[in-house]
Design brief:
The protein has 111 residues and is α/β, with parallel strands linked by helices. It contains 3 helices and 6 strands, in the order H-E-H-E-E-E-E-H-E.
Amino acid sequence: MAVRLSFHALRIDLFHRQPYLYSSTRLAPRIRDIALTMGIKVTDNLVMNDWPLVKCNIAADGERIYHLPMDQQYDRVKLAKPGECYCWTVAEAEANGFRRAKRWVTGSEPH
């Protein structure tokens, strides 16, 4: 299998930022070599602890909404207001008064 990587494809500014590659598994030697050649610091076999993934935010109108990692807006949601939090489970989020985001799957938006 051919692997092609380029600085342009990765959109990395190596002059101002140090890129890192973290993996919870052992990288193939070829991938490690490519990353190191490109100046990317590599850490593999990283033990990653569990952390709460359910994001609970409060909308401008006060509505309490939770987002799961696969939800459409998950990466855009920032928790900054008092009362916003992370929860370990959906049940915990719902017990705290949050409801599931309405636009959570592509194609489920209102027509």
